[in-house]
Amino acid sequence: LRVDPKNQVPIEELLKEPSLRRLVGFTTNAFNLYAPRLYKYYRTTLESLLQWKPTLRPYLPNSPFSACTFNFGPNVQTFIHTDPKNLLWGWCVVTALGRFNPKHGGHLILWDLNLVVEFPPVSTLFIPSAVIRHSNVLVAAGEQRLSYTQYTAGGVFRWVKYRYKSVGEVVRSIGELEVRRLNASRWKAGIEMFSKLGELSE
Fold first, then answer.
1. Which residue(s) pair with 3 in the sheet?
2. DSSP 20-84
3. Per the structure, how many domains does the chain have?
4. CATH number of the domain within which 69 lies
5. Which domain holds residue 166?
6. pLDDT by 10-residue block (mean), the chain, 202 residues
7. For the whole model, what pTM was predicted?
8. Which residues contact 121 (CB under 8 A, 6 or more apart)?
9. From the CB of residue 9, how many other CB atoms can be counted at a distance below 10 Å?
10. What's residue 196's pLDDT?
């Protein structure tokens, strides 16, 4: 929703690229297909935020996410980490780009699941990056790996849920115990937004 002024022009030019818009269209449809309840939560939250403050604008009109990151490499590698500021039960959409041999490098490692996943160029993965530790493997010398990620900070959902008030304002209004009670129920509600395989085949 906001870009550093020095990056404003190049980012806006990049967002006009037809290939990027097609990619976002694909990931948006995939999100809606595989997690329709979670997708609706993202979409309605963003729409509510934009109605509250019309001067804000999404980075692309068809995306349910409020933020994206371009990492131009040329050899993107991440160390073991989580993204704790993202929505805990939310999805982070990661797209690998560049030219590299996915058999030899660029793998995504999901440490808590003991999985190493081949992640070829122009592939997209959805992961709950706030709770699953992840990293990726370097690619070979002379190869190129870039990445494009889409996500929404958990604070955006909290801001809309609290009717555009800070946590401090809500605590002063209804009390800390009531805020804790509300927060305790959020995790269960979040898990229920995930889809089961049987639902998707119906």
1. none
2. HHHHHHHHHHHHHHH-HHHHHHHHHHHHHHHHH-TT---SSTT-S-SEEEEE--SB----SB--T
3. 1
4. 2.60.120.10
5. 5-200
6. 78 90 96 96 96 90 92 88 94 96 96 97 96 94 94 94 86 83 81 88 70
7. 0.90
8. 96, 97, 98, 99, 100, 102, 106, 145
9. 10
10. 87
